[in-house]
Specification:
Elements (H helix, E strand, L loop, with lengths): L2 H4 L3 H7 L1 H28 L5 H21 L17 H19 L1 H24 L7 H8 L1 H7 L12 H13 L1
Helix pairs in contact: 3-4, 5-6, 6-9, 7-8
Length: 181
């Protein structure tokens, strides 16, 4: 079996990679420009160094630098490490306020209706739009089908609907239904 046929030639790989040739071409162009500038400076200073040395040396150096740049793998930017948010007194005060609202809403139906139900409805509407690309006012039938009757009752307000009390279990069920949207 002929091994030359089995292995691809490294020369053939370089020929097909246009990006490599662009890098080398840019290096050659830059090297020739630097060499021409050096040659002009040499003539102006009347040093009369060999022109080939002044043109070839910078060209080879620039090509080598470009080939090294090509060979270095593009490293993606590092993933930012999530920095834990600093907890402050305001954060804990906000949590305490939310806890009080939830506690009051689970005991008093009017408190639930005025402070908790709008937040739950807003969360459900946002999840519905985000996950299902459904707008409650544009497609009410589809939205009702997606969220189910229990969430639909929370999301829509009817003036003739009686205010129901909210148990802790029902509140947890509503939150899990919103999370499942």
């Amino acid at each position: 079996m002929n091994r030359a046929v089995d292995r691809p030639s490294p020369v053939r790989e370089y020929r097909t990679d246009r990006r490599l040739w662009r890098f080398a071409g840019k290096g050659a162009l830059f090297g020739l420009i630097v060499g021409a500038v050096l040659s002009a400076l040499d003539t102006a200073a009347e040093l009369y160094q060999p022109v080939l040395l002044l043109l070839i040396a910078p060209t080879l150096v620039a090509i080598t630098i470009q080939l090294v740049r090509y060979g270095v793998a593009d490293v993606p930017p590092p993933v930012p490490v999530p920095v834990p948010a600093e907890t402050s007194a305001d954060y804990f005060a906000g949590l305490r306020h939310l806890e009080r609202r939830l506690e009051a809403g689970s005991k008093d139906p009017v408190e639930f209706e005025w402070s908790i139900r709008p937040v739950l409805a807003e969360l459900a509407i946002a999840r519905l739009g985000l996950r299902h690309d459904c707008r409650i006012h544009a497609e009410p039938d589809r939205a009702r089908e997606i969220v189910g009757e229990e969430l639909w009752e929370i999301m829509t307000v009817s003036p003739d609907r009686p205010i129901r009390s909210m148990s802790r279990d029902r509140l947890l069920r509503l939150v899990s239904l919103i999370a499942a949207l």
